[in-house]
């Protein structure tokens, strides 16, 4: 029995437990500090830039796929925040209490499942190194767009909430 074999019940149980833990993290209300909101997007942008610089796309269509992944990631990130409920804002500490709505949670699950499917298809088709590098860069560009849009939209929600509180 191989470790990566999906028919292995231990892998199935571990995968379901991981998805459950991640789902629980999305369901519960979480604190978002506005001061640290840009750390993860900055790290993802640097990582994505390093991966693309190490193995840049060979042709113009590769760059087009990267641009498309970034745009789709930005749109998905903005939509995710639109389906996030801002429960409370503390203007003094600059902390928001946010919670995903059901639609936001459903969108998160669809993105998670699509990522798993893409990785499984690429893993079983044995692509050449340049195709695997391009798909990795595409997934990273999507993630970068998603995270940047989420941070930006969360910050805009913070600003609009603090402005309405100040008046």
Short key terms for the protein model shown above:
167 residues, mainly alpha, three-stranded antiparallel sheet, 5 helices, 72% helix, globular
Plain-language structure description:
- The protein has 167 residues and is mainly alpha-helical.
- The chain has one domain.
- It is built from five helices and three strands, in the order αβααββαα.
- It has helices spanning 9-27, 39-54, 60-82, 102-125, 129-166; strands spanning 30-33, 84-90, 95-100.
- It has a three-stranded antiparallel β-sheet with strand order 1-3-2.
- β2 and β3 form a beta hairpin.
- The mean pLDDT is 78.
Number of helices: 5
**Total beta strand runs:** 3
Give the oligomer, counting copies of the same chain as homo and different chains as hetero: single chain
Q: For the CA atoms, what is the radius of gyration? A: 18 Å
Please give the domain count: 1
């Amino acid at each position: 029995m191989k470790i990566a074999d999906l028919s292995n019940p231990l892998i199935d149980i571990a995968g379901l437990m991981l998805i459950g833990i991640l789902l629980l993290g999305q369901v519960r209300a979480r604190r978002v500090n506005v001061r640290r909101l840009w750390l993860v997007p900055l790290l993802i942008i640097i990582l994505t830039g390093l991966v693309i610089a190490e193995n840049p796309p060979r042709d113009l269509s590769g760059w087009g796929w990267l641009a498309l992944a970034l745009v789709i990631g930005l749109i998905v990130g903005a939509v995710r925040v639109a389906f996030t409920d801002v429960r409370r804002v503390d203007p003094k500490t600059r902390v928001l209490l946010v919670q995903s709505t059901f639609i936001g949670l459903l969108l998160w699950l669809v993105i998670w499942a699509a990522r798993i499917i893409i990785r499984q298809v690429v893993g079983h088709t044995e692509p050449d190194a340049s195709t695997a590098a391009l798909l990795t860069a595409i997934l990273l560009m999507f993630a970068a767009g998603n995270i940047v849009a989420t941070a930006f939209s969360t910050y805009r929600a913070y600003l609009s909430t603090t402005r309405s509180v100040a008046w």
